[in-house]
Amino acid sequence: MAAPFALDRSAAKTTKRFWSARWTPYAGIALAGGCLAWLSGAHPGAMPVWAPWDFSPVEFFSISLAFLWFLRGLATESARPRPETWRAVSFVAGLGVIYLVLQTRFDYWAQHLFLLNRVQHVVMHHLGPFLLALAGAGDTLRRGMPSWVRRAAESRPVSAISSVLQRPWIAGVLFAGSFFFWLIPPIHFRAMLDARLYQLMNWTMVVDGILFWSLALDSRPKPPARISFGARIGLILGVMIPQVVLGALLTVWPRSLYPSYDLCGRMLPSMSALTDQHLGGAIVWIPPGILSMAGLLRLIIALSRQRSTACS
User: Fold this and answer.
1) pTM of the predicted model, to two decimals?
2) Reduced to 3 DSSP states, what percent helix, strand and coil does the chain have, rounded to the nearest 5?
3) What's the CA gap between 99 and 229, in Å, rounded?
């Protein structure tokens, strides 16, 4: 008669371990994701503006898990110097703005107005990754990850791919080139009408932005930074100039290049296609230029501090 009781106790212990603090956050994220997926599919009209109108599991779980691992990493740093508050705020803000443009009603609006589509891409490609890189939260994230995820992230194949993609000339070409590529009119038209291509476009923006800004905004000397301060400054200047030129061209181009917004229904019918395009061109031109200047200023200050320390 003791065996069934022993099995029951064993099962109870297993259940308790599963629902312990180690697993509960993952269960909560999975439950929230399942609810949002069901609601956005069954009752899209009832969803508030802050909820996804078209739920994406990849986007939701990637951002949610990054946030969870960051919090867990912070919790394990009691014996170490904790990162400055502004770094934590920068990381959370970077995740937040990326989530905002991908998993709220903004994503729907961005598919029906070129101006907002450009805002979306600038946030995914520039602002969000810029804030994440500024936070310098790599070590914190690694401490918060499950060990098997950390081992996968630090494996030789992943490290080799990252090393290639973050070579200065490759990083610069990919960063500026991806922004140009998705704005080629026939390609942009196809991406806005093909759901899978649209997802690919968005994720190339986010991943490429993170790879570039984490390389360019590293404020440490070389080594441990991958490249020198001069190379980082040259890299930012190298991508800023073609983006300014592209935005200026879109701002003054005399005819509409992106008919998908007329085909799908422009969110603001009173706005002409050409006005929409010209305003979108200004978004391509001005905010990225401001962020690039901010990045240059950060590197110049870091370089000055390094030289002051070396001379003292």
Assistant:
1) 0.88
2) 75, 0, 25
3) 31
